[in-house]
Write a structure and sequence with these properties.
single chain; 346 residues; alpha+beta; 5-stranded mixed β-sheet; 14 helices
């Protein structure tokens, strides 16, 4: 009980006052957990507040148009999370009468809800004795127990799940799970953890052996691929711009973008012009590529500007729509394009 008692006592003194901690209603807790996947609290909090204001209940979110949800989500990244969020809202509202499943196993039947999110909702809302294991929890346990098994290996995932459930305070799972996550976020941080004032210091293996900066261990990620994106911003005399809706199952699904030439190598002006039909004059907006980093991809983006009397037929294919320049801000787009649009279409 040493570990859980110390963690909970620390939490009661140091926890942040966050809106989803003042309720056991599954809707705001689920919403916050989905938003905070791969997102810091400081970045996610304004989005949470916007969503709760716009969609105060699961039924409001379920009735929303997907584009409205994607636009409100814009800037958080990983738009698939927003699509899954919307799909789950519709299922809970329409098929489950607005009631979330009340246990870890059944919660995982919801789209976008994995083991971690299901455990968080089950413990926070229903006090189910199941351990939450996120990046913060991995780090705290790895350091406290001195575990050097890679956290993203099959063996590591199994081992840390076992250890997390052994350390779990089964009588106070809700507060314990929140406590260990908060402890990892504020005290046992990735870089320069505050070991000097740590309540676990005396029994922490990493501290005793000076391994704080080497734990947890993580296997190297898949090699990041370099891609060159050549966007065509083509407008006519009516101040209309061509946009295309991204289809398929790849990145940015259902978001809007400008006509795109995507390649592995940098393209010349003539090569870009040829791809788009060679019927207009191109002007490069940015001489230096705009770099955008994703988990598995590095994008070097170029924005080519063209004006025409009439749009060529080749440009009006592939889910194309015509949008007035002043309306372009209303559509959901990738963050990469959001930044360009804010500068170019002020």
């Amino acid at each position: 009980m040493y570990f859980s008692e110390k963690i909970i006592h620390w939490y009661e003194t140091n926890k942040r006052d966050l809106p989803w901690r003042n309720t056991i209603d599954p809707y705001p807790i689920w919403l916050s957990e989905i938003m905070l996947q791969q997102t810091r609290v400081a970045q996610g909090l304004p989005y949470f507040q916007k969503f709760i204001e716009k969609f105060p209940t699961i039924h409001h979110l379920a009735k929303a148009d997907e584009e409205e949800v994607l636009k409100l989500w814009q800037g958080l990244g990983y738009s698939s999370r927003a699509r899954n969020l919307h799909a789950t809202a519709k299922k809970v509202s329409n098929e489950l009468n607005g009631t979330f499943p009340n246990n870890h196993k059944d919660l995982q039947s919801l789209k976008g809800v994995g083991k971690y999110t299901a455990a968080a909702i089950a413990s926070f809302c229903f006090n189910e004795a199941v351990a939450v294991v996120d990046g913060n929890v991995y780090r705290v346990i790895a350091r406290f127990l001195g575990i050097d098994t890679p956290i993203n290996s099959t063996e590591g995932e199994k081992l840390f799940a076992e250890k997390a459930n052994l350390l779990l305070d089964k009588n106070n799972s809700a507060i314990y799970n929140q406590a260990i996550m908060e402890f990892g976020a504020l005290q046992c941080t990735p870089n320069q953890p505050n070991c000097e004032s740590c309540p676990l210091q005396k029994k922490c293996v990493a501290f005793q052996q000076g391994k704080q900066n080497s734990l947890p261990v993580k296997l190297k990620k898949t090699k990041v691929k370099l891609k060159h994106f050549n966007y065509l911003i083509i407008a006519n005399q009516k101040n209309e711009v061509v946009l295309q809706k991204r289809t398929g199952s790849g990145i940015w699904q259902h978001l809007y973008e400008f006509p795109l030439l995507e390649t592995d190598k940098k393209q010349s002006k003539d090569e870009v012009s040829k791809f788009f039909g060679e019927v207009f004059t191109l002007k490069l907006w940015n001489k230096k590529a705009v770099t955008h980093l994703l988990s598995h991809r590095k994008i070097q983006a170029y924005f080519w500007i063209a004006y025409v009397d009439e749009f060529p037929e080749i440009i009006l294919k592939n889910e194309s729509i015509l949008v007035k320049k002043k309306q372009i801000h209303d559509l959901p787009v990738p963050v990469l394009l959001q930044k360009f649009i804010q500068q170019y279409f002020e």
